[in-house]
Task: inverse folding
């Protein structure tokens, strides 16, 4: 491990807005703020918005600056990446930003029913060979359903045609509510301050000339979700 990474890990320990619970304390067990993020951490009743696989946390930090009336939590397993967002949020003394270092697979340990109002998934690994590991697989959507408010929004921004088509097919197959599907946000007329934030990976993909896609949808309901046929989305 490089000197910089070790230094970041050390500094991460000093950030009060970064939570890094040991795996054994959250595996099938509740994190101490589950159900009390509003009361015991943010000290307000504002909506909570998550960024999953946040990397350096560009969306979490930029949205927290733009929307002081909402709370933002970035989640990723990589501490050296999270350091960037946690450091900026700490230096700017942001009262409405937090980060969690954990595996998203254990996300139900962190949030209670109805505690979260929106989820952003920004440039996740498309996992071409392993559907269940996709952050928009029905396995993960079923987990998010446990804590996303009724009417809550899910946003997926990706360069991956496969992940975009797969997620769209799953939304249609499971009769979820699709609010927007955009196959090329910068090539379309769409100008939206929400979508104009560019993450680290997004900038790399833009340099390669890849179109950036966007989906916004809801996952309300309690009907069991099932995977769409691969032939309905594979290119
Ligand atoms: C391609 S990067 C994108 C990072 C950032 N959103 C961006 O756009 O620059 C994907 C991120 O998701 C994280 N990730 C993938 N699967 C994860 C999981 N199951 N739990 C936690 N983090 C995960 C990785 O650590 C990585 O930082």
Result:
């Amino acid at each position: 491990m490089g000197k910089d990474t070790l230094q970041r890990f050390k500094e991460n320990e000093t950030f009060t807005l970064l939570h890094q619970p040991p795996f054994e304390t959250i595996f099938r067990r509740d994190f101490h703020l589950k159900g009390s993020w509003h009361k015991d951490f943010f000290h307000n009743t504002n909506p909570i918005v998550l960024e999953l696989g946040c990397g350096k946390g560009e969306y979490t930090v930029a949205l927290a600056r733009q929307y002081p009336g909402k709370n933002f939590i970035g989640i990723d397993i990589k501490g050296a990446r999270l350091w960037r967002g946690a450091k900026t949020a700490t230096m700017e003394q942001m009262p409405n930003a937090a980060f969690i270092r954990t595996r998203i697979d254990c996300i139900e340990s962190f949030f209670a029913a109805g505690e979260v109002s929106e989820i952003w998934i920004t440039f996740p690994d498309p996992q071409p060979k392993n559907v269940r590991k996709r952050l928009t697989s029905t396995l993960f959507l079923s987990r998010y359903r446990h804590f996303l408010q009724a009417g809550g929004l899910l946003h997926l921004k990706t360069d991956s045609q496969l992940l975009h088509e797969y997620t769209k097919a799953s939304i249609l197959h499971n009769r979820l509510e699709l609010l927007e599907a955009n196959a090329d946000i910068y090539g379309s007329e769409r100008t939206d301050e929400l979508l104009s934030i560019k993450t680290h990976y997004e900038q790399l993909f833009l340099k390669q000339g890849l179109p950036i896609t966007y989906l916004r949808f809801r996952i309300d309901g309690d009907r069991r979700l099932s995977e769409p046929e691969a032939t309905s989305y594979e290119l």
